# Entry
Amino acid sequence: MRGIFLRNLSITYLIALYYIVFISVIDHSTIAPIINQYAMSLGASPSLAGLITASFSIAAIFSLPIIGFFLDKFSRAGVIQTLIILDAIIVFLYTKALDPYQLLIIRSIHGVIDTGLFPASLAIFRDTITRRLGLGLTMYWVLASTPIILGNYITRQIVVSYGFHGVFYAAFIILLIGFSASLYLGKEYIRIIKREDAPKIMGSEIRGLSIMLTAYLSAFTLYMMIGVVVGSMGPLLEYRLRISREIASAEIATWSMIASLTSIIFIVIFTPFLVKSLRNLLITKLIGLSMILVSGILMILGVDQVNRLVSSIVFGGALGTILPASSKTASDVRFGRRGLSSALLSLSFLLGVITGVMMSSRILEASLGREQNLNFLPSIIASIIALTYLITVLILKTR
# Structure
Protein backbone atom coordinates (compact mmCIF):
# COMPACT_ATOMS: atom_id res chain seq x y z
CA MET A 1 0.00 0.00 0.00
CA ARG A 2 1.31 3.43 -0.90
CA GLY A 3 2.05 5.61 2.11
CA ILE A 4 0.28 8.79 3.09
CA PHE A 5 3.42 10.68 4.11
CA LEU A 6 6.19 8.95 2.18
CA ARG A 7 6.13 6.78 -0.91
CA ASN A 8 6.28 3.07 -0.10
CA LEU A 9 5.55 3.81 3.58
CA SER A 10 2.71 1.50 4.57
CA ILE A 11 -0.23 2.19 6.85
CA THR A 12 0.96 -0.72 9.00
CA TYR A 13 4.29 1.01 9.47
CA LEU A 14 2.52 4.19 10.58
CA ILE A 15 0.39 2.26 13.08
CA ALA A 16 3.50 0.58 14.50
CA LEU A 17 5.34 3.90 14.71
CA TYR A 18 2.53 5.74 16.44
CA TYR A 19 1.96 2.88 18.87
CA ILE A 20 5.59 3.18 19.91
CA VAL A 21 5.08 6.93 20.35
CA PHE A 22 2.13 6.04 22.59
CA ILE A 23 4.03 3.57 24.77
CA SER A 24 6.98 5.95 25.09
CA VAL A 25 4.74 7.87 27.49
CA ILE A 26 2.09 5.44 28.75
CA ASP A 27 4.12 3.19 31.04
CA HIS A 28 5.61 6.14 32.94
CA SER A 29 2.18 7.79 33.09
CA THR A 30 0.67 4.69 34.68
CA ILE A 31 3.47 4.07 37.19
CA ALA A 32 4.39 7.62 38.24
CA PRO A 33 1.13 8.35 40.14
CA ILE A 34 1.56 5.32 42.43
CA ILE A 35 5.31 4.99 42.89
CA ASN A 36 5.48 7.11 46.05
CA GLN A 37 2.71 5.17 47.78
CA TYR A 38 4.08 1.84 46.52
CA ALA A 39 7.46 2.69 48.04
CA MET A 40 5.85 3.43 51.41
CA SER A 41 3.90 0.16 51.22
CA LEU A 42 7.30 -1.58 51.11
CA GLY A 43 8.38 0.26 54.24
CA ALA A 44 9.98 3.42 52.87
CA SER A 45 9.95 6.61 54.92
CA PRO A 46 8.48 9.72 53.23
CA SER A 47 11.97 11.04 52.47
CA LEU A 48 13.13 7.70 51.02
CA ALA A 49 9.91 7.44 48.99
CA GLY A 50 10.65 10.89 47.59
CA LEU A 51 14.17 9.79 46.64
CA ILE A 52 12.80 6.69 44.93
CA THR A 53 10.35 8.83 42.96
CA ALA A 54 13.08 11.28 41.94
CA SER A 55 15.62 8.58 41.07
CA PHE A 56 13.85 8.02 37.72
CA SER A 57 14.71 11.54 36.55
CA ILE A 58 18.11 11.69 38.23
CA ALA A 59 19.31 8.53 36.47
CA ALA A 60 17.95 9.74 33.13
CA ILE A 61 19.98 12.95 33.28
CA PHE A 62 23.18 10.93 32.93
CA SER A 63 21.88 8.29 30.53
CA LEU A 64 20.10 10.40 27.89
CA PRO A 65 23.24 11.76 26.16
CA ILE A 66 24.58 8.19 25.98
CA ILE A 67 21.34 6.88 24.48
CA GLY A 68 21.41 9.76 22.00
CA PHE A 69 24.94 8.69 20.99
CA PHE A 70 23.77 5.10 20.50
CA LEU A 71 20.85 6.27 18.35
CA ASP A 72 23.26 8.02 16.00
CA LYS A 73 26.04 5.43 16.12
CA PHE A 74 24.01 2.23 15.74
CA SER A 75 20.71 1.18 14.19
CA ARG A 76 17.90 3.29 15.63
CA ALA A 77 15.49 0.44 15.06
CA GLY A 78 17.74 -1.92 17.01
CA VAL A 79 18.14 0.58 19.86
CA ILE A 80 14.39 1.09 20.20
CA GLN A 81 13.74 -2.66 20.16
CA THR A 82 16.33 -3.14 22.90
CA LEU A 83 14.87 -0.32 24.99
CA ILE A 84 11.32 -1.67 24.75
CA ILE A 85 12.17 -5.23 25.77
CA LEU A 86 14.37 -4.00 28.63
CA ASP A 87 11.59 -1.62 29.67
CA ALA A 88 9.11 -4.51 29.80
CA ILE A 89 11.50 -6.55 31.95
CA ILE A 90 12.14 -3.74 34.41
CA VAL A 91 8.41 -2.96 34.71
CA PHE A 92 7.80 -6.61 35.58
CA LEU A 93 10.58 -6.44 38.20
CA TYR A 94 8.63 -3.76 40.07
CA THR A 95 6.39 -6.59 41.26
CA LYS A 96 9.39 -8.48 42.68
CA ALA A 97 10.78 -5.67 44.86
CA LEU A 98 10.96 -6.85 48.47
CA ASP A 99 12.07 -3.62 50.13
CA PRO A 100 12.50 0.10 49.32
CA TYR A 101 16.18 -0.26 48.43
CA GLN A 102 15.47 -2.85 45.76
CA LEU A 103 12.74 -0.55 44.48
CA LEU A 104 15.25 2.34 44.36
CA ILE A 105 17.53 0.29 42.10
CA ILE A 106 14.64 -0.78 39.87
CA ARG A 107 13.29 2.76 39.63
CA SER A 108 16.72 4.15 38.69
CA ILE A 109 17.21 1.55 35.96
CA HIS A 110 13.71 2.28 34.69
CA GLY A 111 14.66 5.96 34.34
CA VAL A 112 17.71 5.02 32.28
CA ILE A 113 15.70 2.84 29.91
CA ASP A 114 12.26 4.40 29.67
CA THR A 115 13.36 7.98 29.01
CA GLY A 116 15.27 6.79 25.95
CA LEU A 117 12.07 5.76 24.18
CA PHE A 118 10.93 9.32 23.47
CA PRO A 119 14.08 10.54 21.64
CA ALA A 120 14.26 7.20 19.81
CA SER A 121 10.67 7.48 18.57
CA LEU A 122 11.15 11.15 17.64
CA ALA A 123 14.31 10.42 15.64
CA ILE A 124 12.70 7.54 13.74
CA PHE A 125 9.56 9.59 13.18
CA ARG A 126 11.51 12.45 11.59
CA ASP A 127 13.65 10.08 9.53
CA THR A 128 10.62 8.69 7.74
CA ILE A 129 7.76 11.21 8.00
CA THR A 130 8.73 13.84 5.46
CA ARG A 131 5.58 14.55 3.50
CA ARG A 132 2.54 16.22 5.06
CA LEU A 133 4.66 16.86 8.13
CA GLY A 134 2.02 19.05 9.74
CA LEU A 135 -0.44 16.15 9.88
CA GLY A 136 2.25 13.70 10.96
CA LEU A 137 3.57 15.89 13.77
CA THR A 138 0.03 16.67 14.93
CA MET A 139 -0.72 12.96 15.24
CA TYR A 140 2.61 12.43 17.00
CA TRP A 141 1.85 14.89 19.78
CA VAL A 142 -1.81 14.00 20.12
CA LEU A 143 -0.76 10.40 20.68
CA ALA A 144 2.00 11.50 23.05
CA SER A 145 -0.44 13.66 25.05
CA THR A 146 -3.31 11.23 25.48
CA PRO A 147 -1.30 8.70 27.57
CA ILE A 148 -0.85 11.37 30.26
CA ILE A 149 -4.63 11.47 30.65
CA LEU A 150 -5.25 7.79 29.94
CA GLY A 151 -2.41 6.61 32.17
CA ASN A 152 -3.85 8.29 35.25
CA TYR A 153 -7.29 6.84 34.47
CA ILE A 154 -5.94 3.32 33.96
CA THR A 155 -3.97 3.51 37.19
CA ARG A 156 -6.96 4.71 39.19
CA GLN A 157 -9.17 1.90 37.89
CA ILE A 158 -6.64 -0.91 38.24
CA VAL A 159 -5.07 -0.03 41.58
CA VAL A 160 -8.45 -0.04 43.33
CA SER A 161 -9.39 -3.50 42.08
CA TYR A 162 -6.04 -5.28 41.68
CA GLY A 163 -3.58 -3.31 43.80
CA PHE A 164 -0.18 -1.91 42.83
CA HIS A 165 0.97 -5.06 41.04
CA GLY A 166 -2.01 -4.88 38.70
CA VAL A 167 -0.70 -1.57 37.34
CA PHE A 168 2.73 -3.05 36.64
CA TYR A 169 1.24 -6.09 34.89
CA ALA A 170 -0.92 -3.85 32.68
CA ALA A 171 2.11 -1.76 31.68
CA PHE A 172 4.07 -4.97 31.02
CA ILE A 173 1.43 -6.22 28.57
CA ILE A 174 1.31 -2.85 26.79
CA LEU A 175 5.09 -2.95 26.36
CA LEU A 176 5.09 -6.51 25.03
CA ILE A 177 2.66 -5.44 22.31
CA GLY A 178 4.98 -2.52 21.66
CA PHE A 179 7.93 -4.86 21.22
CA SER A 180 6.00 -6.78 18.55
CA ALA A 181 5.25 -3.47 16.82
CA SER A 182 8.93 -2.48 17.00
CA LEU A 183 9.99 -5.68 15.20
CA TYR A 184 7.84 -4.79 12.21
CA LEU A 185 8.82 -1.14 12.37
CA GLY A 186 12.50 -2.05 12.45
CA LYS A 187 12.26 -4.19 9.34
CA GLU A 188 10.49 -1.44 7.38
CA TYR A 189 12.74 1.31 8.74
CA ILE A 190 15.89 -0.49 7.56
CA ARG A 191 14.32 -0.93 4.12
CA ILE A 192 13.54 2.79 3.91
CA ILE A 193 16.96 4.10 4.94
CA LYS A 194 18.76 1.69 2.58
CA ARG A 195 17.11 3.23 -0.45
CA GLU A 196 19.43 5.05 -2.80
CA ASP A 197 17.57 8.33 -2.39
CA ALA A 198 17.35 8.07 1.41
CA PRO A 199 19.53 11.14 2.05
CA LYS A 200 17.03 13.21 0.08
CA ILE A 201 14.03 12.12 2.17
CA MET A 202 15.44 12.24 5.68
CA GLY A 203 13.86 15.58 6.47
CA SER A 204 14.90 19.21 6.31
CA GLU A 205 17.70 20.62 8.41
CA ILE A 206 17.64 23.58 10.74
CA ARG A 207 21.08 25.13 11.03
CA GLY A 208 22.43 27.39 13.73
CA LEU A 209 23.06 26.92 17.43
CA SER A 210 20.87 29.91 18.31
CA ILE A 211 17.83 28.26 16.70
CA MET A 212 18.51 24.96 18.46
CA LEU A 213 18.80 26.74 21.80
CA THR A 214 15.28 28.15 21.36
CA ALA A 215 13.99 24.55 21.41
CA TYR A 216 15.90 23.50 24.51
CA LEU A 217 15.24 26.73 26.40
CA SER A 218 11.51 26.65 25.57
CA ALA A 219 11.25 23.01 26.64
CA PHE A 220 13.16 23.71 29.86
CA THR A 221 10.90 26.66 30.73
CA LEU A 222 7.74 24.67 29.96
CA TYR A 223 8.70 21.79 32.23
CA MET A 224 10.02 24.13 34.90
CA MET A 225 6.43 25.33 35.34
CA ILE A 226 5.33 21.70 35.65
CA GLY A 227 8.00 21.19 38.30
CA VAL A 228 6.78 24.27 40.19
CA VAL A 229 3.21 22.94 40.21
CA VAL A 230 4.19 19.42 41.25
CA GLY A 231 6.74 20.54 43.81
CA SER A 232 4.92 23.32 45.61
CA MET A 233 1.28 23.83 44.66
CA GLY A 234 0.02 21.05 46.95
CA PRO A 235 1.39 22.47 50.23
CA LEU A 236 0.39 25.97 49.10
CA LEU A 237 -3.23 24.87 48.57
CA GLU A 238 -3.25 23.15 51.95
CA TYR A 239 -2.14 26.37 53.64
CA ARG A 240 -4.16 28.91 51.64
CA LEU A 241 -7.43 26.98 51.30
CA ARG A 242 -7.23 24.91 54.51
CA ILE A 243 -7.81 21.64 52.69
CA SER A 244 -6.42 18.15 53.26
CA ARG A 245 -3.34 16.75 51.55
CA GLU A 246 -5.50 14.32 49.58
CA ILE A 247 -7.77 17.04 48.24
CA ALA A 248 -4.74 19.20 47.39
CA SER A 249 -3.26 16.30 45.41
CA ALA A 250 -6.55 15.86 43.57
CA GLU A 251 -6.52 19.56 42.67
CA ILE A 252 -3.04 19.23 41.17
CA ALA A 253 -4.21 16.23 39.15
CA THR A 254 -7.22 18.23 37.94
CA TRP A 255 -4.98 21.16 36.95
CA SER A 256 -2.72 18.81 34.97
CA MET A 257 -5.62 16.99 33.32
CA ILE A 258 -7.28 20.23 32.14
CA ALA A 259 -3.94 21.49 30.80
CA SER A 260 -3.36 18.20 28.93
CA LEU A 261 -6.85 18.21 27.40
CA THR A 262 -6.48 21.84 26.32
CA SER A 263 -3.07 21.13 24.80
CA ILE A 264 -4.62 18.77 22.26
CA ILE A 265 -6.71 21.61 20.84
CA PHE A 266 -3.64 23.82 20.47
CA ILE A 267 -1.62 20.98 18.92
CA VAL A 268 -4.24 20.53 16.22
CA ILE A 269 -4.44 24.28 15.54
CA PHE A 270 -0.78 25.32 15.67
CA THR A 271 1.21 22.34 14.36
CA PRO A 272 0.21 22.80 10.70
CA PHE A 273 1.16 26.48 11.11
CA LEU A 274 4.60 25.98 12.67
CA VAL A 275 5.91 23.55 10.04
CA LYS A 276 5.53 26.06 7.21
CA SER A 277 8.51 28.29 7.93
CA LEU A 278 11.22 29.14 10.43
CA ARG A 279 9.43 32.37 11.29
CA ASN A 280 6.22 30.47 12.09
CA LEU A 281 8.21 28.02 14.20
CA LEU A 282 9.73 30.81 16.30
CA ILE A 283 6.42 32.65 16.60
CA THR A 284 4.77 29.47 17.92
CA LYS A 285 7.41 29.16 20.63
CA LEU A 286 6.93 32.84 21.42
CA ILE A 287 3.20 32.26 21.90
CA GLY A 288 3.87 29.26 24.12
CA LEU A 289 6.36 31.07 26.34
CA SER A 290 3.94 34.00 26.70
CA MET A 291 1.29 31.56 27.90
CA ILE A 292 3.68 30.11 30.52
CA LEU A 293 4.27 33.66 31.74
CA VAL A 294 0.54 34.41 31.94
CA SER A 295 -0.17 31.08 33.66
CA GLY A 296 2.48 31.78 36.28
CA ILE A 297 1.26 35.34 36.88
CA LEU A 298 -2.30 34.08 37.41
CA MET A 299 -1.08 31.64 40.06
CA ILE A 300 1.11 34.17 41.82
CA LEU A 301 -1.93 36.48 42.09
CA GLY A 302 -4.11 33.81 43.67
CA VAL A 303 -4.80 30.08 43.87
CA ASP A 304 -8.59 30.23 44.08
CA GLN A 305 -10.60 27.93 41.85
CA VAL A 306 -11.09 30.44 39.02
CA ASN A 307 -7.39 31.33 38.84
CA ARG A 308 -6.40 27.67 38.84
CA LEU A 309 -8.86 26.87 36.07
CA VAL A 310 -7.76 29.75 33.83
CA SER A 311 -4.10 29.07 34.59
CA SER A 312 -4.42 25.40 33.61
CA ILE A 313 -6.20 26.28 30.34
CA VAL A 314 -3.56 28.87 29.47
CA PHE A 315 -0.77 26.45 30.33
CA GLY A 316 -2.43 23.86 28.11
CA GLY A 317 -1.88 26.32 25.28
CA ALA A 318 1.81 26.43 26.19
CA LEU A 319 1.99 22.63 26.10
CA GLY A 320 0.23 22.48 22.74
CA THR A 321 2.57 24.97 21.10
CA ILE A 322 6.01 24.42 22.65
CA LEU A 323 6.00 20.62 22.53
CA PRO A 324 5.49 20.28 18.75
CA ALA A 325 7.62 23.35 18.00
CA SER A 326 10.59 22.26 20.11
CA SER A 327 10.43 18.68 18.81
CA LYS A 328 10.30 19.94 15.23
CA THR A 329 13.44 22.02 15.84
CA ALA A 330 15.32 19.29 17.68
CA SER A 331 14.57 16.65 15.05
CA ASP A 332 15.30 18.85 12.02
CA VAL A 333 19.05 18.34 12.19
CA ARG A 334 21.47 16.27 10.18
CA PHE A 335 20.60 12.56 10.14
CA GLY A 336 23.76 11.58 12.03
CA ARG A 337 23.01 13.97 14.90
CA ARG A 338 19.25 13.55 15.20
CA GLY A 339 19.35 10.98 17.99
CA LEU A 340 21.55 13.10 20.25
CA SER A 341 19.56 16.25 19.49
CA SER A 342 16.29 14.51 20.42
CA ALA A 343 17.89 13.12 23.58
CA LEU A 344 19.00 16.63 24.60
CA LEU A 345 15.40 17.77 24.21
CA SER A 346 14.31 15.07 26.67
CA LEU A 347 17.12 16.17 28.96
CA SER A 348 15.73 19.73 28.84
CA PHE A 349 12.35 18.39 30.01
CA LEU A 350 13.90 16.61 32.98
CA LEU A 351 16.17 19.47 34.01
CA GLY A 352 13.20 21.82 33.87
CA VAL A 353 11.11 19.64 36.18
CA ILE A 354 13.94 19.12 38.67
CA THR A 355 14.83 22.83 38.72
CA GLY A 356 11.19 23.84 39.17
CA VAL A 357 10.62 21.38 42.01
CA MET A 358 13.76 22.34 43.90
CA MET A 359 13.46 26.12 43.54
CA SER A 360 9.73 26.38 44.21
CA SER A 361 9.79 24.10 47.25
CA ARG A 362 12.62 26.08 48.82
CA ILE A 363 10.92 29.42 48.12
CA LEU A 364 7.61 28.11 49.46
CA GLU A 365 9.28 26.96 52.66
CA ALA A 366 10.71 30.44 53.21
CA SER A 367 7.64 32.47 52.19
CA LEU A 368 4.59 30.40 53.13
CA GLY A 369 3.42 32.90 55.75
CA ARG A 370 3.26 35.76 53.25
CA GLU A 371 0.29 36.71 51.11
CA GLN A 372 2.14 36.41 47.80
CA ASN A 373 2.56 33.02 46.15
CA LEU A 374 6.25 33.53 45.53
CA ASN A 375 6.85 29.86 44.72
CA PHE A 376 5.67 30.58 41.14
CA LEU A 377 8.26 33.32 40.73
CA PRO A 378 11.01 31.05 39.24
CA SER A 379 8.70 30.08 36.36
CA ILE A 380 7.86 33.72 35.67
CA ILE A 381 11.53 34.75 35.65
CA ALA A 382 12.48 31.82 33.40
CA SER A 383 9.67 32.76 30.99
CA ILE A 384 10.86 36.35 30.76
CA ILE A 385 14.46 35.26 30.09
CA ALA A 386 13.35 32.76 27.45
CA LEU A 387 11.04 35.29 25.81
CA THR A 388 13.81 37.89 25.65
CA TYR A 389 16.17 35.42 24.00
CA LEU A 390 13.53 34.18 21.56
CA ILE A 391 12.49 37.68 20.51
CA THR A 392 16.16 38.50 19.84
CA VAL A 393 16.59 35.38 17.69
CA LEU A 394 13.31 36.06 15.86
CA ILE A 395 14.42 39.60 14.97
CA LEU A 396 17.92 38.55 13.87
CA LYS A 397 16.93 35.44 11.90
CA THR A 398 13.90 36.78 10.07
CA ARG A 399 15.12 40.21 8.96
